[in-house]
Amino acid sequence: MNVVITGASRGIGKAVAEVYAANGHALYLCSKNEVALYKTMEELLTKYPGVKIKAKARDLSKQEEVENFGQWILDNSINIDVLVNNAGNFLPGSVHNEERGVLEEMMAVNLYSAYHLTRKLLPQMMKQSPVSGTRGHIFNMCSIASLNAYANGGAYSISKFALYGFSKNLREEMKQHLIKVTSVFPGAVLTDSWGDYDNSDKRIMEAADIAQMVFSCSQLSPQACVEELVIRPQLGDL
Question: DSSP letters of the chain?
C-alpha cells in the first residue's frame, strides 16, 4: 500500500509510519519541522531498508502549503491507499480567557489541514481502480476532546469537535465511492504535548498503541469499516 501521513515526524504520526514501514508499505510523509521529518525518514530507512519512503516538509496550517503537499502526492502518480490526517497541535486554555488568535490557529492546524488535503486528494482516490475492493481508507485523528468537553480544553476541543464533524460527513459521502473513513479518538498518549510527564507507572498510553489500531483497521475486509475508534488508558481519562 501507499500510505500518506501528516504530522509524521513525532508522536502518533511517527508511530503510524513505523508500523506501516515494518509491514513493508510505502510511505509519503509530511511534517512542519524539516529537520525532524528527515531524521524520522532516515531512522525508518535504516531500520527498514527495503521500504520506499519519501517526505516533504510543509506547514499544513497554511492552505497554500497544504495544496503544495497534496500536489506533490499527486505528482508521484500513485494509488493513495491510506491517508492519515494526523497533523495537529495543542494549546491549553479556556474560552473566556485564552489569547486572541488561538481558535484560528487551532482550527487551521487541527481542522483545515485535514479538510484541504483530503479535498485535494479525493478526486484521484474516487476514480482510482479499487484494490481488494476498496479505493482507499482515510483516518482522521480526532481526540477524546472531540467527544467531551474538559477543563482547559478551550479552542483545542472546539477544533477537534469540528474535525469529528468533518469526518462524520466524509464517511457518509464516501460510502458509495468505496472509500473508508475512520475517526480516531485517542485519550491521553505519551507524546510531546505531555512534556516531561513521568509515565513510569504506565498511566497513559503509548503512541504505538494508537498506531497498531490504525494499522489493524486498515487490514479488514472491503465490506467492513471501523467508523469510530475510541482508545483510552486502562485506568480511564486523566
Answer: -EEEEESTTSHHHHHHHHHHHHTT-EEEEEES-HHHHHHHHHHHHHH-TTS-EEEEE--TTSHHHHHHHHHHHHHT-----EEEE---------TTTSPTTHHHHHHIIIIIHHHHHHHHHHHHHHHSPPBTTBSEEEEEE--GGGTS--TT-HHHHHHHHHHHHHHHHHHHHHGGGTEEEEEEEE-SB-SGGGTT---TT--SB-HHHHHHHHHHHTTS-TT----EEEE--TT---
